[in-house]
Design goal:
46% helix, 240 residues, alpha/beta, four-stranded parallel beta sheet, 8 helices, Rossmann fold, 2 domains
Length: 240
Amino acid sequence: MPPVVLVAHGSRDPRAAGATRALARAVEAARPGGVVLPSWLDHTEPGPTAVLRELAAAGHRDVVLVPLLLTAAYHRRVDVPAAVAAARETAPDLTVRVTDVLGPVAGAVDDALLAALRRRLAEATPGGYDALVLAAAGTRDPRARGSVGRVAAALGEALHVPVRVSYASAAPPAAGPAVARLRAGGARRVAVAAYFLAPGLFHDAVVAAAREAGAVAVAAPLTDVPDLAELVLRRVGSAG
């Protein structure tokens, strides 16, 4: 059984690193005898290159690397391959199988991702809702925004409510205006689904803005939802 390396974006907020470590423990617990190690692209050590080099030095020749990313934007297309290439400069015999991101793949939204979003919403909104905002971190990549839109569409179809996308950075609309627009259109109970893998400043900003705009609830990030560990395991399994 090859070791698994999880690669998170990284954050200055220490809660994010703690959440990633907890996810690594949950995935490892579901793989008896397997090793699951966290790493971060920025702000937190160790980085994926260092972890891969350590595994190679310990004698491993095959590793599965899972990007803890919700879109296949710059970090997946550039940063992750660069980290793998840097590790293989000193460990040329190391095979690193990089999985798909946790968001949609070839336009398909994994049912485990939808289950994670729905579970968080159920925890946050016992009184129900008649419209949703799917709040994401944000990206300038139009393909990545399209991926977020597909998740919003799938969530709306599953829950039979209108869903608008909002972004915490890089692209409009922000969470507050998205909530306000739904309320102006007649929605009385607007909730916010958090398309975030870990807590941090972006999620905090979404909570504040959405509540100020009249949202009845904002769901927590996804990291410690059991369905997310299942999704990671599926990505590992798909690596062969």
